[in-house]
Hints:
mainly alpha
Amino acid sequence: MATIVSANGKANEFNAAMLLAPFRALGRAMVALAEASPQMRALDRLSRLNDEDLAARGLTREGEVRRILGGAAAL
């Protein structure tokens, strides 16, 4: 018969990180889903443009945010 013994003796102690791990994983998954959305990608492209580039195209940052987000921009 074989027995397994923990070398550090802490195998049975409560670990808060283990309790929080599912919540952290869920949070990371939600962020990944949000970042993958077409709206978020469009907002990322918009953030890379400076105001002069937008003005040259006849656009404003506020107007583009409203266009990209639609009704959600009012929230």
